């Protein structure tokens, strides 16, 4: 690693970390248009995740979970006076997530959906529509609202800086990422599954295609992945896709770091309550 290099991290998150399903963290650094993957960690508890967040910088980390709820949904459940309210900021909404149980949050989400017609059940952040990601209020398949509930308050507590949303320690930068957005720019084929019975050779072939493309640098972000043969093998063999997703997040974070002088490549007018997925 070059001296004084800023560490780039990609974090594939889970709302229930365990030894079987960890929070996966890819670490490396960027030199010119090349990302050097130095290692992958598995964090099996929120305590280890919290410890990672307060590690001294400089680092830039891209996290695979939503940082904010749709403004419309926040207003519906009474967390905003109206959809146009400017009185409430991201930290206030995020603190409210610590005061509500998963069950009560799910009830709010379900009630919102039940009151609306088929095809318009969920409230969407504009960036979720653009990225093709799940609505951040979705509580099942995948349960991203639980990821938001567990992840965002810990970012706030750790005092990291979230461009466009929250001012914090400028040596520890947190960005929202979505690995599926980058993966689909390479192949439309499915590449992962947590269920062992559904981990097919076709998924493995798709992961291999993605890894090969990343190694060439010939894709939308134009950042060439550099990784040892052992790490390349791990990216392909991990059928859950967690390791590959963490690296995809790191590459999105690397793209943002290249544009750190332009607010990390984020649009100038993002909604600070909802946030934005980097590279979208």
Structure description:
It is a single chain. The chain has 280 residues and is α/β, with parallel strands linked by helices. It is 38% helix and 15% strand. It is built from ten helices and seven strands. It has helices at residues 46-53, 71-76, 90-97, 102-114, 126-131, 144-158, 179-186, 201-216, 229-237, 242-258, and strands at residues 7-12, 23-31, 34-43, 59-63, 160-161, 169-176, 224-226. Strands 5-6-4-1-2-3-7 form a seven-stranded mixed sheet. Helix 3 (90-97) packs across helix 6 and helix 7 (179-186) packs across helix 10 (242-258). The radius of gyration is 18 Å and the shape is globular.
Return residue spans where pLDDT drops below 50 for at least 5 consecutive residues: none
Outline the biggest β-sheet. 7 strands, mixed
Shape: globular
Strand order of the largest sheet: 5-6-4-1-2-3-7
Total count of helical runs of at least 4 residues? 10
Mean pLDDT: 95
Strand content: 15-25%
N to C succession of SSEs: EEEHEHHHHHEEHHEHH
Structure summary, number of beta strands:
7
Level of helix content?
25-40%
**What is the first-to-last residue Cα distance?**
29 Å
Strand-pairing-aware structural class: alpha/beta
- Specify Rg, calculated over alpha carbons: 18 Å
């Amino acid at each position: 690693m070059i001296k004084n290099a800023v560490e780039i991290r990609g974090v594939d998150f889970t709302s229930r970390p365990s030894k079987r399903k960890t929070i996966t963290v890819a670490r490396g650094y960027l030199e010119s248009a090349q990302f050097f993957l130095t290692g992958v960690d598995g964090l099996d508890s929120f305590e280890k995740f919290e410890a990672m967040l307060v590690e001294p910088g400089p680092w830039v980390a891209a996290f695979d979970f939503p940082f904010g709820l749709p403004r419309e949904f926040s207003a519906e459940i009474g967390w905003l006076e109206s959809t146009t309210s400017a009185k409430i900021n991201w930290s206030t909404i995020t603190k409210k997530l610590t005061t509500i149980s998963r069950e009560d949050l799910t009830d709010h989400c379900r009630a919102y959906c039940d009151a609306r017609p088929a095809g318009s059940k969920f409230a969407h952040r504009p960036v979720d529509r653009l990225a093709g990601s799940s609505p951040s209020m979705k509580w099942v398949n995948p349960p991203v609202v639980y990821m938001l509930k567990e992840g965002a308050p810990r970012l706030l507590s750790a005092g990291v800086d979230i461009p466009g949303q929250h001012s914090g320690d400028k040596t520890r930068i947190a960005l929202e990422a979505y690995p599926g957005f980058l993966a689909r720019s390479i192949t439309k084929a499915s590449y992962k599954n947590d269920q062992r019975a559904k981990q097919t050779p076709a998924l493995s072939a798709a992961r291999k295609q993605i890894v090969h493309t990343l190694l060439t640098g010939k894709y939308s972000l134009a950042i060439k992945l550099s990784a040892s043969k052992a790490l390349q093998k791990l990216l392909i063999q991990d059928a859950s896709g967690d390791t590959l997703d963490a690296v995809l997040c790191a590459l999105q974070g690397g793209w943002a770091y290249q544009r750190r002088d332009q607010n990390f490549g984020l649009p100038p007018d993002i909604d600070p309550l909802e946030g934005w997925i980097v590279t979208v």
